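Re: the multi-chain job from yesterday

Posting the exact lines I submitted so nobody has to dig through the queue logs.
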Amino acid sequence: MSARTKDIELHDVEQRFHARGSATGFLTAVHETSFTLRSDPPHIVSLVGQSGSGKSTIARIILGLQRPTSGTVTYGGKDIFKLSRAEYDDYRRNVQPVFQDPYAIFNPVYRVDRVLRTAIKKFGLTKSKARAQELMEESLRAVKLDPAQVLGRYPHQLSGGQRQRIMLARVHMLRPAFIIADEPVSMLDAQVRKLFLDILVDFQRAYGMTTLFITHDLSTVYYVGGDVMVITKGRVVERGPVAQVMHTPSHSYTKMLLASVPQPDPDKRWTDRIDIEEADREEAAPEVPTSDPARVPRP
Amino acid sequence: MTLQSTLRPLRGVARRLRENWKLSTGLVLLIGLILLALLSPLISAAVGQGTDPVAIAAYQKWLRPSPDHWFGTDQFGRDLFAMTIGALRVSLEVGAIAGVLSTVVGVIMAFVAGYKGGAVDGTLSTITDMVLVVPSFPLLIALSAYTKNVGIVELGLMLAAFSWPFAARTIRSQVLSLRARPYVELAKVSKLRDLEIIAYELLPNMLPYIGVGFASSALGAIFALVGLEVIGLGPGETIDLGKIIFSAIGTGAMTLGAWPMFVAPIFLLTLLFAALNLINIGLEEVYNPRLRGVAGA
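And the result, structure tokens for all chains:
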């Protein structure tokens, strides 16, 4: 399958949003970010950062939901916003999301099956009704859901963990080369979170899916392993294998993040407090001028 | 698929109706009024006994209310009961036509503007706002001065021309909030086309708002026409509820003892107003949980 060897590459992707009141008139969510997601060998890359650091924007850009202000995202060497019909179909089929909010992801007026049926129909998985049913049941079982308990139900009748696993079942049916998982476990409770992550790791091994795992929670990064990129204020400040970044962090922000992970151990209670004032001052600090001042137009 | 599971959404609707007295009262009132209006040919025939009860000089003029003529007769000897019910029908028809037209225009404008965003939204919203601030009543007065013998459909068109921006504005803001929902993004990565997303993902969630938009523009159109008729500037020869009020004022019907000529149309208009507003408030309560009286109610 040639599609398996295509890579997603971000070249100097920058995303600015209009923001009234800021000095420059806009807010830069993502600064000149470049990285490559390789599908061969399949692996998990975590993107870690706090809220507002630009990680969800990166996910939306890779998924083609948002056009970056400058820079390009390529899939198999082609700009994802300039694909031919066939290339677009291939890209859509192979780059699929798992979103954060298991509640808002379902249209409340439809049964949950619709999410799976739409995928079958739109990606032409099968034309036969019986085969479609089979596919759905098989994929639901793969995410440890009982098809009889899930199919035919409305979203509000299922728990958050069940709904999020239906999204995984959708991914299981489509078998994309890339999963863009934007905070997929942040709204799940602890056991369901582990179950979800286990399934994600299994998918990587069993079906060769490369996962961009976006999270603010370092403990989940540790759990899924692979590589990690640390992002703050729209810039990737550190990248490397999980063990290396966790044990010998080089950037001060990574160290701060690591120190903010609570340990479930009464002997390791935090004794010092994070200096809120200092943290606020850092947040409020004006945008760091980029190395090339001409790039940021000043009014 | 079992019958039970198909009926589930319907049962939800029934439950909402039972739990929200405003919505159910409003609907009962509205359905009653519509039935009354639909029955107007039968009522007319029953009153007239073979003749047309609202023909000029069908009976003596200014008859007092009696078992034969429940509301009496007017200055031309027309039966007021049959005439009022007929006028209710005209008012409702004008409202329905204007309501449907302005809702359709409003929905299209709102969906295109809200979903496309950017320059398209800017242009369409500016047009909407411009029509919104046009002083419609003086314009309608001027328009009706030039239009004689217009039918119900033309009347509806005239009124809809000024009432669609209200529907467009409310619906657009809802589209703006809905299009950012994750399920819309999931639909996009599932290769649904824009029109499919509008029709299958957004529209079903918009139905209550579209209903509210329809109700308000229909009501607005009915009352605009009544307003025109009451001050004697109504276009054409159509007899709606406003026209009856106008003749009641013009002929001094109250002093002649023909009080139903004045009271009946106003009573019906009040009922209609109450019904549509109860439905509006009820729908908003049902679909905006923050307005519900008690949590979980």
